[in-house]
Input
Amino acid sequence: MPQKPEATASPELLTVVETAKTLRISQGTVRAWVLNRKIPYVKVGSRVLFKQADIQSFINRNTVQAA
Output
C-alpha cells in the first residue's frame, strides 16, 4: 500500500473567522487591523490568512502585566 506523503513543516494558517474567534473579537475588527497593518498576516492570492504563531505573539505583545 503506498504511503501518504509527509506533511511539510509549514505553520498552521488561520482564516479571518478563526482568528476572530481566537482573539474573541469581530471579523470586522480583524479586517480593519489588516487594513491598518496592526496585525501580521499572509496574503495568498486574494485570501488573507494568519500564522498561528504570529497570533500568539500578537497576544503576548499586547498582554498588560499586573502592577
In short: Residues 13-61 form one domain. The longest helix spans residues 52-61. The first strand starts at residue 13 and ends at 14.
